[in-house]
């Protein structure tokens, strides 16, 4: 074969190797019912605790800056795991419980076959669907990581006060672009945030403004009632979308147009010229948002995956085999 052609082939294989090894039918022979087993668990869990849906989608995101279920590993005396990083302490227990329950149900039928990382990917898709969001086919074949470090989560994940510049830079390090950023942020159309994630926007924004001027004043006064400047309940959470907090819809973008984005990184998407156009589009065309979200979730679900013989198929998602 021509040398240049061979080189080109090698480069192509290397660049696309991790996602190329994921496939929709990965468990077709080894665990053909995996999707229906996980769906059953998602349904039951959602009936019991509807907050599990948003919580699990967030868990997937926090895992997926390297989708290998390293986020579900527990700390050991020798190692502080990702889940104990400050940024992950607010990941809800119901999300971890959903993964544990789904994995247990899958293990009962196909022991040692399906990774925790794939269980989390399927669960996430199912929860988005159950709350009215888009459906997509989940590519599978991820293997579970054996390393989980709190410092990695702190270094990799974006902060609530990030500007669009910082968000774009952070997403780019994972191969995600502006469209991915705006569409994935739309996951903040459901679920909740703790007061400490946005209270600086209400009380001590800057030397010239006590309140973030991009925030609607009626929205701010509602938030102040639940999140007082002093003596508030640190466990209290506020919905990202107060009207439909359990629905996956495009209300997030409509809220941004009205200055009702909850955390800085949300409202910034409307303040910044580069992302504003897309926010406007998604606020008007729900289906365009759904399509972009499904594509971006597929892309995010392939970041840093372990395939082939790397990693392992964990038996218990909270510890390595
Ligand atoms: C763009 C950068 C992002 C930032 C700065 C960010 C930040 C946050 C913050 C501060 C919270 C509230 C945490 C708490 O106080 O409990 C939150 C919640 C949440 N995030 Fe994000 N996030 C981002 C992107 C994403 C992405 C890409 C997804 C998923 C695709 C996502 C899904 C969620 C969900 C569903 C919740 C609600 C969780 C619950 O109700 O338990 N976020 N995020």
What labels describe this entry?
321 residues, Peroxidase, domain 2, 2 domains, two-stranded antiparallel sheet, 2 strands, binds protoporphyrin IX containing FE, lactoperoxidase activity
Describe this structure in words.
The chain is mostly helical and 321 residues long. The protein has helices at residues 3-20, 34-48, 52-63, 93-109, 116-130, 150-156, 164-172, 178-185, 200-203, 217-226, 251-257, 264-271, 273-284, 286-300; strands at 192-194, 237-239. A two-stranded antiparallel ribbon has the order 1-2. It is globular and about 60 Å long.
Give a topology summary.
Blueprint (H helix, E strand, L loop, with lengths): L2 H18 L13 H15 L3 H12 L29 H17 L6 H15 L19 H7 L7 H9 L5 H8 L6 E3 L5 H4 L13 H10 L10 E3 L11 H7 L6 H8 L1 H12 L1 H15 L21
Antiparallel strand pairs: 1-2
Helix pairs in contact: 2-4, 2-5, 3-4, 3-5, 4-5, 8-13, 8-14, 11-13, 13-14
The chain binds protoporphyrin IX containing FE.
Reading off the top of the CATH hierarchy, the class of the largest domain is best stated as Mainly Alpha
Class by alpha and beta content: mainly alpha
List ligands, each type once: protoporphyrin IX containing FE
Apparent shape? globular
Compute the number of structural domains. Answer: 2
- Number of separate helices: 14
CATH topology of the largest domain: Peroxidase, domain 1
- How confident is the prediction overall: mean pLDDT? 93
Strand portion, in percent? Answer: under 5%
Radius of gyration: 20 Å
Q: Give the fraction of residues assigned to helices.
A: 40-55%
Q: How far is it from the N-terminal to the C-terminal residue, by CA? A: 44 Å
CATH architecture group name of the largest domain: Orthogonal Bundle
Strand order across the biggest sheet? 1-2
Q: What composes the largest sheet?
A: 2 strands, antiparallel
Unreliable segments (pLDDT under 50, ≥5 consecutive)? 4-18
> Element order, helices and strands?
HHHHHHHHEHHEHHHH
- Counting DSSP E segments of at least 2 residues, the number of strands comes to 2
Catalytic activity: 2 a phenolic donor + H2O2 = 2 a phenolic radical donor + 2 H2O
Cofactor: Ca(2+); heme b
EC number: 1.11.1.7
Pfam family, one: peroxidase
